Amino acid sequence: MAATILSSAPKLIYNPVLPSSELLGHPSRRFLPHFFRPGPLAVRSIYLPESSVVAPFSGSTRADWQTSCAILASKVAASSAPGDNGTSSSESSQNHLGNGAAALKPISLEKLSSSSTTTTTTTLDLVPEANLLRPLSICDLSPPPKHGSQLRVAYQGVPGAYSEAAAGKAYPNCEAIPCDQFEVAFQAVELWIADRAVLPVENSLGGSIHRNYDLLLRHRLHIVGEVQLPVHHCLLALPGVRKEQLNRVISHPQALAQCEHTLTAMGLNVAREAFDDTAAAAELVANQGLRDTAAIASARAAELYGMQVVAEGIQDDEGNVTRFLMLAREPIIPRTDRPFKTSIVFAHDREGTSVLFKVLSAFAFRDISLTKIESRPHRHRPLRLVDDANVGTAKHFEYMFYVDFEASMAEARAQNALAEVQEYTSFLRVLGSYPMDMTPWAAGAGAASSASSD
Ligand SMILES: O=C(O)C(=O)C[C@]1(C(=O)O)C=C[C@@H](O)C=C1
């Protein structure tokens, strides 16, 4: 069944502003990167009066929305964007925090490739059959998955990882599916094995998780929600082991970085080694009976793998928070009845810094706050050489810029800001317009225990 659905699914380009004013030429040209357009824009006006844009795409049905998206997608199907590869709480043992979770083995790439064959048995065997048929409480306003079961959320790591807790916060009754790599989590959604993927993108202490920004561009999934998870690390060792016996600490690099000073202050000047994820580090120590090694992981990982909590709250800052994005095959319909955020990525092919300044001013002039800006190397054109016979060759680094701003794509000001941004850029993609995580601040709440619904 999964394969049938996959082959008939339209490849959507997120484009919330579909029926549009003729001011920008053919409606389908709006928000498409320049090289997707068949010809020059009819009107090159930059500052559009807010009233010139058609009513926001609200009140329409999901079917209308998706049909419109599909129309757009058909216009761009032949092209591929820079960086794109063209591919297309503890209630039961099946819940994301369920006791049975420890038995789940992460999905690996090998399993995924076998699941994409025409035989679907393998695919279905990968994931235990869901048994919870009740309304889902999800933050992204999307309809329940088509297979009519629990929402399946793919995350990188093993049970007890913070990404699993983030999945549970966003979708309290979900079935969390462990994957051994982020790439696998993305593919699990693309192959209809999972309905959502969870992706950590930044941490209040460690900063951006750069590789994951690159993944957003390489795949065509849409951001449909965000979760800001307080991350409270514990130092875990085998039962009976004392701090003095330790000569190694292993964990996810982000977790090691987030606890660096505290470990030193605790007198643990021992070797630190990077591991795939925090919970897998705890699992390794437990499985191999490593009495000289501690893991940094969650209190839930300690429970799952029978580890002793040597120290709690060892992150360097009490208010340590990681931001996760929820990704889906289809975009959600942006709304205006609650705070929304929109994430975009763009590139420009003109020289100088003024392009970036102009892009940012498109938001500033409309009082739209930016919450994040990140730059990553332009994968297809990382360097631009400028020859000057007199002084030599300048090598300019080229970037993709990721911007998050506080507005919904259902708002005219956001639509107009993007219309303007498109004038300055050679590539522009809306990664998603989604509800902001507005969970009340509770710095003391632990990661696994504080999972709450949006
Ligand atoms: O290793 C985990 O438990 C994860 O979920 C990954 C991850 C990350 O990538 O930043 C998530 C939250 C914490 O910041 C530490 C690690």
TrEMBL record:
Keywords: Amino-acid biosynthesis, Aromatic amino acid biosynthesis, Chloroplast, Lyase, Phenylalanine biosynthesis, Plastid, Transit peptide. GO terms for biological process: L-phenylalanine biosynthetic process. Its main location: plastid. GO terms for molecular function: arogenate dehydratase activity; prephenate dehydratase activity. It is found in: Plastid, Chloroplast stroma. Residues 152-329 form the Prephenate dehydratase domain. Pathway: Amino-acid biosynthesis; L-phenylalanine biosynthesis; L-phenylalanine from L-arogenate: step 1/1. This is Arogenate dehydratase. It holds the Pfam family PDT. Its EC number is 4.2.1.91.
